[in-house]
Amino acid sequence: MFKRKNAKKNKQSNEIDLVLLRTTNNNFELGIIKSILDDNNIPYIVKDYGAGGYMRIISGDSPYRTDVLVEKSNYNQAKEILEQITFE
Fold first, then answer.
1. What residues contact residue 24 under an 8 Å CB cut-off, 6+ apart?
2. What is the pLDDT of residue 7?
3. What CA–CA distances, in Å, run from 30 to 57, 68, 70, 83?
4. Are strands 2-3 and 44-48 parallel, antiparallel or unpaired?
5. Contacts of 74 (CB under 8 A, 6+ apart)
6. Which helix (H) or strand (E) element contains residue 23?
């Protein structure tokens, strides 16, 4: 779990509930997803597996799986936006 930076006691929980929005192993698709989420002010976390993060830094791409996680309260909005785009 991640914690909110400025959470007030008893009024707002200080834990952030993250859910998986999409999994990709394509750097181009990841860039599109990140741009769309940024444009719509939806915070996200990118989680690389294996040596994916290092590979992305060194070569600019990664053959490993990458998860894009969003806060549960933003999930439906983010999912609706991404459903309008085909990645095939």
1. 30, 33, 65, 66, 68, 87
2. 53
3. 14, 8, 14, 15
4. unpaired
5. 42, 43
6. strand 18-24
pLDDT digits 0-9 by tens, 52-84? 666 676 666 667 788 999 999 999 999 999 998
Residue 21 pLDDT level (bands cut at 50, 70, 90): very high
Burial class (CB in 10 A: 0-12, 13-18, 19+), 8: exposed
The tens digit of pLDDT for each residue in 30-44 reads: 899 999 999 999 999
Q: Which residues contact 55 (CB under 8 A, 6 or more apart)?
A: 61, 62, 63, 64
